[in-house]
């Protein structure tokens, strides 16, 4: 039941942070960098599946161990590593296999993934500890 609580908190935190990113920063940046590769409209089912899986990973590998250890520093280190590794999987694969994948997108995505996972982990940890 504790994982469900963590997941719900992380899901809400993720939606807020990602909505800001997708609403304010990402559209203009990605359109300028990879607009020629983008679909007319996003595949919302694929996006939802990614969100659900990614949040499971953040909860399992970042939040739960940090809560168990009551260590904010562990959350920060784990969040940075988890975000970096997960976003590197996608971006470095694209860089290796797509003709026109810009390295700038890879660098920005790696920074974003690291920031996103860390911020999700820290906020979920703080909210969880505040509530329970």
Automatic annotation (TrEMBL):
Name the UniProt key words of this record, in alphabetical order: Membrane, Transmembrane, Transmembrane helix
Q: Report whether Ribonucleoprotein shows up as a keyword of the record.
A: no
A Pfam family assignment: DUF2177
Q: Which domain of life is it from?
A: Bacteria
Can you name this protein? DUF2177 family protein
Chain ranges passing through the membrane: 7-24, 44-64, 71-90, 110-131
**From which residue to which does any coiled coil extend?**
none
What InterPro entries does the entry give?
A: DUF2177_membr
């Amino acid at each position: 039941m504790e994982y469900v609580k963590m997941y719900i908190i992380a899901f809400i935190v993720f939606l807020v942070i990602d909505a800001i990113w997708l609403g304010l920063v990402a559209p203009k940046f990605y359109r300028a960098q990879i607009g020629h590769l983008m679909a007319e409209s996003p595949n919302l089912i694929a996006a939802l599946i990614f969100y659900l899986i990614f949040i499971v990973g953040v909860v399992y590998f970042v939040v739960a161990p940090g809560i168990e250890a009551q260590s904010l520093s562990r959350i920060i280190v784990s969040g940075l590593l988890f975000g970096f590794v997960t976003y590197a999987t996608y971006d470095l694969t694209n860089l290796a296999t797509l003709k026109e994948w810009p390295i700038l997108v890879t660098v920005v995505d790696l920074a974003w993934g690291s920031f996103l996972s860390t911020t999700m982990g820290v906020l979920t940890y703080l909210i969880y500890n505040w509530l329970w």
